[in-house]
Amino acid sequence: MFGDDHALSLALIDSLGIAGIVVWHMQGRNRPTGRLTVQILFFAGMSLVLYMGGIAPHRPDGLYTQGFAALLSKSARILWWTHFAWTIVGFLHIYVRFNRKPQEAHLILDMAVAVIYLGVALSVMGFVFGMPIATLVTTSGVAAIILGLALQNTLGDVFSGIALTLGKAYAIGDWVQLSDGTAGRVTETNWRSTNLLTGANNIAVLPNSMLARQGLTSLSRPDETHQITLTVRFAAGQKPRFVEDAMRSVLQASTRIVKDPLPAVALKSIDAIAIEAELQFRVASLAMGMSAKNEIIDIIHDQCGASGLLLAMPAESLVYMPVATSRESSVPSAAARLSRPVQDPLKTVLP
């Protein structure tokens, strides 16, 4: 009688396991909460039947060792371990969704899911089929070493991506700039690489190991505002105070810059040629930088026309004229001789 009850329990577990898989697929990918509910209910039902029937899923079945009954016993245990893995994975997915960081944490989530499935696979081999787990682990370790040596670069990208994710150096949607000058918005991170949308509307695919080696500046933290500096040179004949006031009025007239914190004007230098002023202002995001800078330049042009400010020549346009020595000045150069006007011989003869 015990054997019949045992077989009935195994058949009921198989039925619940198959029904759970069917209902789980019917929920669809767009209903993660419904899928988790189905997983919990069917897994709880299968566990209850195991407990009531006195069946231990972590030990091989010593009652049914051959025939249809053995197949029924092994399939029931396999289905229970499968639902056990799915239930844990479902809880992990719900936890990540409740934290509202599905994009940033998916690398760690994928690793956790892989560890769970690997552990369940080893459990099925050891507890259901009676295979020596120690031998399997040793064999898997040797295979992992060989595979790791063959995939050193790929594994470097994988672990660099995990380190960057754990360190929270950036998040999806952040503007970042690398030490080599590459800049863009982070659109995707995966096991091997990180994708940046550059200002030229191109996707730059950067290996995670390269990102881990380079210096990285986040342009979106602590907030999205970005500071821009614009240097303008004015003729030195004007008063520095007048130049500063004029540039402050330019910044106040702009509508595309952030007014908190207040923009500033710094007089950087003065010489016999020019007064150099630096305009410091912030924009709401890096994408607004070009339009704000264009607006500031346009207002500076209008301000110069209204207030009589004169722009100075660029510093690189000034040409250095060497002073000739006394010996060089006594002997006219070939260019000087060619440029000297030729006298009319009649003028030297006729009075």
From TrEMBL:
Mechanosensitive ion channel MscS domain segment(s): 154-214
Molecular function via GO: mechanosensitive monoatomic ion channel activity
Alphabetic keyword roster: Cell inner membrane, Cell membrane, Ion channel, Ion transport, Membrane, Transmembrane, Transmembrane helix, Transport
Residue ranges of the TM segments: 6-24, 36-58, 78-96, 108-127, 133-151
Membrane association type: Multi-pass membrane protein
Subcellular location: Cell inner membrane; Cell membrane
First-listed, main subcellular location of the protein, grouped into a coarse class: membrane
Any Pfam family hit: MS_channel_2nd
Signal sequence residues: none
InterPro entries registered for this protein in UniProt: cNMP-bd_ion_channel, LSM_dom_sf, MscS_archaea/bacteria_type, MscS_beta-dom_sf, MscS_channel_2nd, MscS_channel_C_sf
GO cellular component: plasma membrane
Family statement drawn from the similarity comment of this UniProt entry: Belongs to the MscS (TC 1.A.23) family.
Subunit description: Homoheptamer.
Function: Mechanosensitive channel that participates in the regulation of osmotic pressure changes within the cell, opening in response to stretch forces in the membrane lipid bilayer, without the need for other proteins. Contributes to normal resistance to hypoosmotic shock. Forms an ion channel of 1.0 nanosiemens conductance with a slight preference for anions.
Name of the featured protein: Small-conductance mechanosensitive channel
Originating species: Nguyenibacter vanlangensis
